[in-house]
Amino acid sequence: MQNLIHNIFSNNLYTIITIAILAFILFAIVKKLIKFVIYALVAFVAFLVYVHLTGKSAEQVLKDTQKNGVELIEEGKDKIDKLEQIEKNRR
Fold this sequence. Notes:
Blueprint: H1 2-10, H2 12-54, H3 58-90
């Protein structure tokens, strides 16, 4: 490993190529982080607009969403169970 590092830093061309590759990697990471932050901000603003338009508190909206999510998951489980029973009966 030290031999590789020594070879990179002893040759100017290898050093330039290594710095260019690292710059591209850093640019890609920063680009993805910025994109994530933008999506998060858009989602947060959409949530705030929804809370404002419904006239409810943010806490109440979150509780309602959680309740609806749990109900949706339970309905999905019930449908899967019914489909499994139908499939077992077909065999």
